[in-house]
């Protein structure tokens, strides 16, 4: 019976891609905390991950095609997420909706969860490697 990476790795490979996208959004928010009129953006991670999982289970993956035989194929992960604007706790006079403390906290939590997914994947790969060696 062949091993499926989707079943072997679980949700963690897809979570890494989404966490990376979220980190980019949060970093952009922090970089623009003093930009007049800038609207803070984020994704609903839970619903985005559920959407990716549903697409994988339904077989609706979008695969990028290579144009040369030596190109490296990218994984079959459809990570089209909907970016949402964050509702500010307190309105700013210049129209900026970034709360620097909230962004730093969200970024730190996202980074911690990214590391956790990396650790889980490392354990999964070690297990697969041991199984292939017959250990």
Per-chain topology:
Elements: H1 5-9, H2 12-31, E1 41-42, H3 45-58, E2 84-85, H4 100-133
Helix pairs in contact: 2-3, 2-4
Q: Profile the largest sheet.
A: 2 strands, antiparallel
Helix-strand pattern: HHEHEH
Integer count of domains:
1
Mean pLDDT comes to 82
For the largest beta sheet, what order do the strands appear in spatially?
1-2
Shape: elongated
Instruction: Give the low-pLDDT segments.
Output: none
Helix content: 40-55%
Tally of individual helices: 4
Terminal residue distance: 18 Å
Number of strand elements: 2
Give the class from helix and strand content and strand pairing.
mainly alpha
Rg, nearest Å: 19 Å
Approximate strand percentage: under 5%
Short description:
With 135 residues, this protein is mainly alpha-helical. The chain has 4 helices and 2 strands.
Describe the 3D structure:
The protein has 135 residues and is an all-alpha fold. The protein has one domain. The chain has 4 helices and 2 strands. The chain has helices spanning 5-9, 12-31, 45-58, 100-133, and strands spanning 41-42, 84-85. A two-stranded antiparallel sheet has the order 1-2. Helix 2 packs antiparallel against helix 3 (45-58) and helix 2 (12-31) packs antiparallel against helix 4. The longest helix has 34 residues, at 100-133. The two termini are 18 Å apart. The mean pLDDT is 82.
């Amino acid at each position: 019976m062949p091993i499926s990476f989707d079943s072997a790795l679980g949700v963690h490979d897809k979570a890494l891609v989404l966490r990376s996208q979220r980190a980019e959004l949060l970093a952009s928010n922090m970089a623009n905390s003093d930009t007049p009129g800038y609207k803070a953006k984020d994704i609903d991670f839970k619903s985005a991950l559920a959407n990716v999982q549903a697409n994988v289970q339904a077989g609706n993956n979008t695969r990028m095609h290579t144009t040369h035989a030596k190109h490296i194929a990218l994984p079959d992960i459809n990570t089209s997420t909907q970016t949402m604007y964050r509702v500010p706790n307190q309105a700013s006079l210049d129209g900026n909706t970034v709360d620097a403390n909230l962004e730093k906290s969200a970024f730190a939590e996202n980074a911690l969860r990214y590391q956790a997914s990396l650790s889980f994947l490392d354990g999964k790969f070690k297990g697969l490697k041991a199984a292939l060696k017959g250990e």
